[in-house]
């Protein structure tokens, strides 16, 4: 994600300063509303924009904050704002924790259910929420007027700056990985569930705060605040502004608040125009209006920083041996791995060969925790890792690359650089030479030797036997889920069973 | 029963396009609105309006596909998510602007009131809904299971790549599925529009019920979605009788959250042979 | 004799079985996908340039495809798999299905069974029968022997020979060179997407360095 930059920083500061200095109360109210919706949108950008999670509860969390503020303001005054944050963040935390591992279409449903429950509570909980009429008369002890405006915008500016700062570089890159290729993220040690929880809670808290401010501005809270229309407005304004742009929420909110004024003659049609504009943006300008403006300014497109191999490869502490013992993996009735055993030591390169369907990628998946083994053990020195979650195995020092790059713009080189940068001691490489030219193969061989000399262990799957012979100290040959030969490259290549398996001659190889 | 039609259309569209259509609920409302306007304009009675509504909403389904779903097939799921939500908002706002926010009544099928059958009092409209709904479900079942068109639709849903490779014109069948989904939504809107009225804001509620039905019944399973929809209807009626409508809905949503928390793979798991 | 298929250096005539050999990643599947139209590339089928035709159009002009991993329509029954793949009108279609079931007795045993319940061998036969529904003049098979019992493999290869004898052109992509060369008349070896060897089946089969090419080591050529 790009840095905020002077241009946008100015744009960010302008509205509150101008409002306080020049505008009348009506104008100030509008600017306050822009700030409020931008706060809610900023929170939404965390969950939806950065992590790509299909969240439909942001509107309801806004409403919960509004109600909490209205209910507690008479007693607590300004502290009601803090209560509002909690009133939104806690339900968000509960739902997110319960739904950490859900696939996206189920997660969307969970947020939708949460939102609906909040709405029902608002409409029917007459004793607490005043039912359909809502709550009024609570603003006496809440900030008002210019003070409120200032508070809203201070929070917003701080939020935008923090967001822009945090998501530049490393964090933004990790979010992109989680969004586009969650499997890759897991094998790099990123705990997707924890991220989603954190984003949902912080995002929800911001929505709750925005709701509280909104209650203070309008002086009335009604079930509308938890209705679906607020959610749709939040979503569309964030998308229109630019789901990942630091100023996306602000721009979107500005349009959402100002458009109805501009189109006053058209009555309700402004929402229609808004929705059409959103659809158009999704189809033809996915970076949103902020992105479009940046393009017009000539600000250039921010390329994600490509991982580069470090110049020097420092030695790494940690386990010295990866042991694979009698690993079995079944799919349906078929044994993809029928008892595979061998070891990989630090400072060696082991090549894994075998015909198609012999189980090579399945074995890598089992070691890295993406497809846990059904039986057998996998250990780093004395520590068994076969039952650990993928991101924990990665943190224990096991990294891997994939046969086909899973991120847009990735190549094998970039994948490899990324894995090496994690400092993993054991590297599992799945066909890193596929589609490479001769020159690239030589470079790869050189790189792998360097990695070996720095004390790393490499298990490499590939079909280029000539390359493997050059760089590997040992070869292990799989056929139909079993090891049929292991040893020095020359020996394995000359082995009759190995040659037969490649030609498909040996029916009785098992 | 009408909810079963909504869920049926929803799951057919899901299987064909691989994407959740958040505008599906608003297609239901659009169907009801079409019935209202059509009835006023033409003076036609309910049963004659039915095919007209079906055709009109079938066309609407095709437009929805062309505008918000097919062009975004290659993009990440967030894109279709936003596009269909935007489309839902467009339909809802469009209806609000043209018809106003006040609820309208759609023409009934057999007239209002009730009749007496062997001592039991049956409402005319609910009876008509059950009959028409069951007939449509049976018709769709026949289409899917007994005709070449239905077989090819199922093949496309099962494995799109291979459907191409056996000579099936895939795009045509996806559009057909989405048109059928639209028609089913529209008819459901007409059926529901007499008892429950037609208001632009109802779309979200319809979509949510269909979404729950598909999630509980096994993502992508047609009989599962139907059973779940009927189950949801029964569940709500039951709880409503004892505790009122609000509690019925609340109980449903809480149950959904519990199910999702406890069984992340859905109540019956993903049906075999589904390509994600 | 005009070629049934021309793509790059490869040309296949009616009644020929050409083995396309090479290890995984050598480009066998990419080649087949290009012929079908899933990937772009110049292809000539039955004497005309079909580069601009989409997959369905090429298939209907006379192509049959048995993909790697069979990929039958899992939720459909055996009979429905065959019917869905058939472009003929209803009564001719019924007749054709009957012909297929007669040709494949193991499918005729349980035509109402859902395809996902079948064994690997049965699914392979179903995939083959499905590919034959539109009477293709060119049949493409991608590693059809993978994971099959020897008896089934032998049956499959016998059928391919019979089809070739009837005039169908066949492109058989295989890792198991010996099997493929046993039925083929010619063969080509791919490595990294390029043809690195070609010759008659007999020549290739007799060559001791073939295993090296298969395993990706083609420094000898």
Please characterize this protein's 3D structure:
The complex is a heterotrimer of chains A (about 500), B (about 280) and C (about 220). Chain A is elongated and about 90 Å long. With about 500 residues, chain A is α/β, with parallel strands linked by helices. Chain A is about 55% helix and about 15% strand. In chain A, helix 1 runs antiparallel to helix 7 (about 145-165), helix 2 (about 25-50) packs parallel to helix 7 and helix 2 packs across helix 11 (about 230-240). Chain B has a two-stranded antiparallel ribbon. In chain B, helix 5 (about 125-145) runs antiparallel to helix 8 (about 170-195). The radius of gyration of chain B is 18 Å and the shape is globular. Chain C has a 6-stranded mixed beta sheet, sandwiched between helices. A 4-stranded antiparallel beta sheet of chain C has the order 2-1-4-5, with no helix packed on it. In chain C, strand 1 and strand 2 form a beta hairpin. Chains A and B meet through helix 5, helix 11 and helix 13 of A and helix 4, helix 9 and helix 11 of B.
Annotate the secondary structure layout.
The complex is a heterotrimer of chains A (510), B (276) and C (221).
Chain A: H1 5-21, H2 25-50, H3 58-76, H4 80-98, H5 104-124, H6 126-129, E1 135-136, H7 145-167, H8 170-180, H9 182-187, H10 192-218, E2 220-221, H11 228-241, H12 248-262, H13 269-284, H14 288-297, E3 321-331, E4 334-345, E5 349-353, H15 360-368, E6 375-380, E7 383-384, H16 390-395, E8 398-400, H17 412-421, E9 426-430, H18 438-453, E10 457-461, H19 465-471, E11 474-479, E12 482-487, H20 489-494, H21 496-503
Parallel strand pairs in A: 5-10, 5-11, 8-9, 9-10
Antiparallel strand pairs in A: 1-2, 3-4, 3-6, 6-7, 11-12
Chain B: H1 2-17, H2 24-42, H3 46-69, H4 77-99, E1 114-117, E2 120-123, H5 124-146, H6 148-158, H7 160-165, H8 170-195, H9 203-217, H10 222-243, H11 245-262
Antiparallel strand pairs in B: 1-2
Helix pairs in contact in B: 1-5, 1-8, 1-9, 1-10, 2-3, 2-4, 2-8, 2-9, 3-8, 5-6, 5-8, 6-8, 9-10, 10-11
Chain C: E1 3-7, E2 10-13, E3 17-21, H1 28-36, E4 44-45, E5 48-49, H2 55-60, E6 63-66, H3 78-84, H4 90-103, H5 105-108, H6 120-132, E7 138-142, H7 150-165, E8 169-174, H8 177-183, E9 186-191, E10 194-200, H9 201-206, H10 210-214
Parallel strand pairs in C: 3-8, 3-9, 6-7, 7-8
Antiparallel strand pairs in C: 1-2, 1-4, 4-5, 9-10
